[in-house]
Amino acid sequence: MPVMNIIQAVNSALDHALGADEDVFVFGEDVGRFGGVFRATDGLQAKHGENRVFDTPLSEAGIVGTAIGMAIYGLKPVPEIQFSDFIYPAFDQIVNEMAKFRYRSGGQYPCGVTIRTPFGGGIRGGHYHSQSPEAYFAHTAGLKVIVPSDPYTAKGLLLTAINDPDPVIFLEPKRIYRAARAEVPDEAYTLPFAAAVDREGEHVTIVTYGAALHEAREAADLLAKNDISAEIIDVRSLVPLDDETILASVRKTGRVVVVHEAARTCGYGAEIAAIIAEKALMHLEAPIVRVTGYDTPFPYTLEQQYLPDALKIFEACETTVDF
Amino acid sequence: MTPLSILSPSGAPKADADPAWSSERVCSLHRAMVRSRVLDSVMGDLQRRGLISLFVPAKGHEAHIYGALLALKQSDWLFADVRQGAAALYRGFELRGWLAQLLGTRSAAHAGHAHSTEFTARAVNFVSVSSPVGTQIIHASGTAQGMKAKGTDDCSFVWFGPAAAAAGDCHVGLNFAGVYKVPTVFYYCSSGDPAADEARLGPGEFADRAEGYGIRAVRVDGSDVFAVYAAVAKAVKHARSGEGPTLIEGITGGLSGNGDPLTRLEGYMASRDLDGPALRQSIAAVFDAEVRGLIEELLGEGSPDTSTLFDDVFSQPTPQLIEQRAGLETHRRRFAGGVID
């Protein structure tokens, strides 16, 4: 089986989707001739043609609005927003149009757009190339929000998203675009929009997604050296949320640390904590702890201080276990 | 740019410009315009009675609507703002279902999910209307890009007014359409109040903006249904032949005097020995009774089932939606008889 990084896995998924279904269209700023600023669409225009893979003007509202027009017409557009920090000019199109087309038309106009966009920090990008905007979209009824954590999940979840009849915000953890490498099947495959137990453990559950999964693994290794066995849940699908996989782990360990890069207040971790409190309170042995970005704009120089890292996760787990 | 016109203010056609349609076709157009007036009036009543939140009348805009529809095929997609909902009826959408959506009653196709100005008629390629102003301008371009990519000779058609014309999405939609040369007809309807439009858009002619996008433009007398038809027909031909989009500026007349598209058409009808005002009266009486009868019937059917609140958020409900739906049902069952001390 070939080894790929996330960029190659995304490229492979798009290549399969374009080859298998002539209704799939891939477009965005510099996506066509140049192959994307991160090279995720490299070679796709040459292979599938300028009609199917094309460059757009720099207008996020235009990119998403165009995708909406194509999707209600029955096509499967896969637009790219170059950085999720720049998705806000399309916010009205996403929240008021893409998310509501099916509902407001009573199912007459499904809107199966898959918006791919790199998110997250740790690349010295400053606050306009580092944000984690997932909570805005998870809070909007009608959007699915998917976050792969490695090359294998990137390809399988992206192919599921493209064939899903509902709109999907597909957030790609760009810090590990090239760092995360894994065996990925050459052929097409899909993964369900569901959480997965990434590592089994007994004493504490770390719930996380995206690039932070890798910090959680590092933390779990440190914890193991201190005789603390951590279970890791890779959420993968923020909407719909597979809360059963999370709750089953909580019932087993009784202790929870939720980790994400996005700012704490009203972040997705708050939703996970609330669900656990509602449905598994009597299984909890300690308060739920969040390890997140801070309630500041994403910083430039001190980004490593801002980001959750293995030591912060380690400390939170230790505190939880010692409670 | 001199606006295209065919009918004089009194309804006399310019020499060699009379489309010379059959009396049947002229009367059918007239009937659609009269019916639209009836809907304006009945919906105004419903709004005053608090039975619908809002209805934006089409009065004065009928030439924009029906002149365009006559020039389009059924397979061309319509993107409307809140003023052109009755266009779906002209394309054959069933009146009862149309009214049910406005009222949000039990048989509404969207189960009352959408506001009374927001209307969907997929069966006749009339895309859901959205209250955020101007968003549909980009969708029209996107759908047309899809039409072009799929090799059809269909086009998309979008109506919008001065508020949308001032919004960013109007610029974006025109820009994308110009870049990709999509088969779209952009139809701007002025408000009928030039001072108000100037306050929104400045003193220039709106159609002049098209040049910067590399888009063909035409201005048309929007009280003249034949002129609108001619302008749209030419734009549609242009679109179908791969020549790209057109921006039409439809100049809405004041309703007093000869700015009313309906009286102007009736002036023309008189020259064909067709008694417009008499037809108007009889059509309106019959249609008014039909509409009011259907409304009473629909009000009698009540609201959609509570569970439909959760339908069509996604293709399949998520576990969270299923749980919330069950929670609401349990709650309602418990308090069906009110709070018991």
Describe the structure.
The complex is a heterodimer of chains A (323) and B (341). Chain A has 323 residues and is α/β, with parallel strands linked by helices. Chain A folds into two domains: 3-183, Rossmann fold, CATH 3.40.50.970; 196-322, Rossmann fold (3-Layer(aba) Sandwich), CATH 3.40.50. Helix content of chain A is 37%, strand content 20%. Chain A has helices at residues 6-20, 44-48, 60-72, 91-98, 101-104, 134-138, 151-163, 212-225, 243-253, 268-280, 303-306, 310-322; strands spanning 3-5, 24-28, 53-55, 76-80, 114-119, 144-146, 168-173, 181-183, 196-199, 204-208, 230-234, 237-239, 256-263, 289-293. The longest helix of chain A has 15 residues, at 6-20. The model of chain A has no long low-confidence stretch (mean pLDDT 98). Chain B has 341 residues and is of the alpha/beta class. The A-B interface holds A 25, 51-52, 56-57, 59, 61-62, 65-70, 72-75, 89, 92-93, 96-97, 100-110, 141-142, 144, 164-166, 239-244 and B 77, 108-111, 113-114, 118, 120, 122, 127-128, 130, 132, 135, 138-147, 149-150, 156, 168-169, 172-173, 175-176, 179, 311-315, 318-320.
Task: Summarize model confidence as the mean pLDDT of chain B.
Answer: 96
Tertiary shape of chain A:
globular
Largest sheet properties of chain B? 5 strands, parallel
How large a portion of the residues of chain A is in β-strands, by DSSP E? 15-25%
Class from secondary-structure proportions of chain A: alpha/beta
Shape of chain B: globular
Number of helices of chain B: 13
Topology of chain B as a string of helices (H) and strands (E): HHEHHHEHHEHHEHEHHH
Radius of gyration of chain B, whole Å: 22 Å
How big a fraction of the residues of chain B is strand? 5-15%
Distance between the termini of chain A: 45 Å
Q: What's the arrangement of strands in the largest beta sheet of chain B?
A: 1-2-3-5-4
What oligomeric state is this?
heterodimer
Q: At the fourth CATH level, what is the homologous superfamily of the largest domain in chain A?
A: Thiamin diphosphate (ThDP)-binding fold, Pyr/PP domains
